[in-house]
Amino acid sequence: MKKAKNTPTQPKTPRERLAAKSEKQSNGCVLWTGATATNGYGIISVHGKDRLVHRYAWELANNKPVPADMVVMHTCDTRNCVAPNHLVSGTQADNMKDKINKGRQGCSTGKHGKKLSLDELKHIYSLVDNGKTGYEVAKLTGRSEQHIYQLIRTREARMRRESIRAQQTALGTLKDIQRAVSTAMNQLLMNPILAK
Predict the structure, then answer these.
(1) Boundaries of every domain in the chain
(2) How far apart are CA 28 and CA 81, in angstroms?
(3) Which residues of 60-80 are buried (b: 16+ CB within 10 A; e: fewer)?
């Protein structure tokens, strides 16, 4: 008689996938190791719809859906954490107050509002150019995510303007050349010696 192969089965339900793709950390966080969005939040498919995994984890822990007018906040400030004791519901206003109180909101004072040195700016752009997300750059540099994304947008706008100026300069130079050639041709045609 042949023995059945001992092959691990893939988790089938969203709850099973959540458990299978979560790793407990020494700091108490339980990190989602599955798919993430570009902003760093985990994503899980629940009944054919992509959901933010921390919201789904909160719903499982509280045995009810997140109210429509509420958000789920991380007390640990780790976007891919799904530890039930690190997730609390609140309003968007609560979330904004929490960001400000923890220094994660761009402001005009404090370390997030201080002027960047040229070296800091070059370092930020280097991280972005090497594929880091705004969220990752903010974590690495101690700046707010909002500040990093503003720097990225400002640089992209400046690069577009410089590209347009370069195209306009090239076009202007081409028109100058065309005018010079046209003038030279007209002068040649008007020269009585060459006209014969």
Answers:
(1) 20-102
(2) 9
(3) eeeeeebeeebbbbbebebbb
